[in-house]
Amino acid sequence: MAGGFIASSGDSPAFPGKMTLYVFICVIIAAFGGLIFGYDIGISGGVTAMDDFLMKFFPAVYERKKHAREDNYCKYDNQFLQLFTSSLYLAALVASFLASFTCSKLGRKPTMQLASIFFLIGVGLASGAANMYMLIFGRILLGFGVGFGNQAVPLFLSEIAPAKLRGGLNIVFQLMITIGILIANVVNYFTSSIHPYGWRLALGGAGIPALFLLGGSLLICETPTSLIERNKNEEGKATLKKIRGVEDVDEEYNSLVQACEFARQVKDPYRRLMKRESRPPLVIGMLLQLFQQFTGINAIMFYAPVLFQTVGFGNDAALLSAVITGTINVVSTFVGIYFVDRTGRRFLLLQAAVQMLICQLVIGIILAKDLGLTGTLSRPEAIVVVVFVCLYVMGFAWSWGPLGWLIPSETFPLETRTEGYALAVSCNMLFTFVIAQAFLSMLCGMKSGIFFFFSAWIVVMGLFAFFFVPETKGVSIDDIRDSVWKQHWYWKRFMVRGA
Questions:
Q1: CA distance 317 to 52
Q2: Mind listing the GO molecular function terms for this protein (predicted)?
Q3: Fewer Cβ in 10 A, N or C end of the chain?
Q4: Residue 307 pLDDT > 70, yes or no?
């Protein structure tokens, strides 16, 4: 594999420890933050295709949708409709910086609890909305929940997991996102036939996992890193013994204490992030978020029902097709969990880039060739589109989806970890907002060309992964600097000599 481009992953000391039942429970409870995020991603596309919802909040879109000969690519193009989806991600962008502060000062666990509270209030407002203002404000509060949850949960998972299992346990967050999307698609399918309040039931469903996260968070521990970082050394050591399932944790504990002592000397973490030696994790963390969104995945997952209607499926069939893609999304994420600590991160990124590129090109060619402004694809062609959408979702689910969260959570040093990850999360939310706000307008303006647009981005991100993303499989989270950056053919030039 491109010798010279990969950092060695075998130089890191292996601290004693095993996978314990308690860690497994902590991982599942924390990862419910991902389930809520996934539910919000999946539910918006189905709700925006429901006639009752459109008649109440977007009557102009509903009238346009009723016209049988309306432009296939433009019938849902409405900035306020897109704002319903995208406002959540703009709020999450802002919230990620506040969450960085609470993660550092209060801990990962209280930040997850704040996330669940924001979720619950937002769900109440959105599902009970009597007007557009309540609807959008509810989505904004949901966005704050997403920002706090997406900041705290991946950090929590990376810090609590043993190094040899960190990749698989961290991907549980992405797994729960995919399960949330699937649940949302199933809920959309059944509530679409409940008139006139099916959309309220769909939006209100996010309250169930939010309650689980709030209640479950009372049972989990804080991470040893966060405890030691906040001068609770004895509690941190006791927690480390508990999660590792062994008494001999002195080596890992001393490593954490040393990292925390160094981190305390950094008075301005954001300024340190701008220094040359911080550039490798910062550049990779931020660009992975951009690339994750510009694969086109959220364009498909947000608007899967709309997309399938565009290629010729009826409303119910479109929602059912979205359930199928959601199921494939979940199953394929298990593939990522299995392989990420075996084949490594780079292999999954590169393999999936090729697979997704082929799928985007095939879909684009079929639509360009046979889907005009009016009419539909033939049934066989529509089925081919759905098949390649499913193959595309497979590739994303075991690679760029989970690894976009995993790699930034494990590559920043402790002194800039929460701040660096906050920048990565904010980039994710920014580009998610851009895609959510622009996709329907892009679909209207570019038509089938939008799939070639995303194909070009997949080429760029594949080349970036090949040349610039090092392997971090099996490396201790606090040994990344010596075992990864100083060994990489390009990034080693950013490391201070003798440091």
A1: 18
A2: symporter activity
A3: C
A4: no
| Angle, vertex CA 304, rays to CA 449 and CA 408, nearest 5 | 85
pLDDT, tens digit, 9 for 90 and up, residues 182-241: 899 889 889 988 999 999 999 999 999 999 999 999 999 999 999 999 999 999 999 999
User: What average pLDDT does range 158-183 have in this prediction?
Assistant: 88
Q: What is the pTM of this model?
A: 0.79
Q: What is the pLDDT of residues 262-306, one digit of tens each?
A: 888 888 888 889 899 899 999 999 999 999 989 988 667 655 666
Domain boundaries, the chain: 21-494
CATH 1.20.1250.20 fits 21-494, yes or no: yes
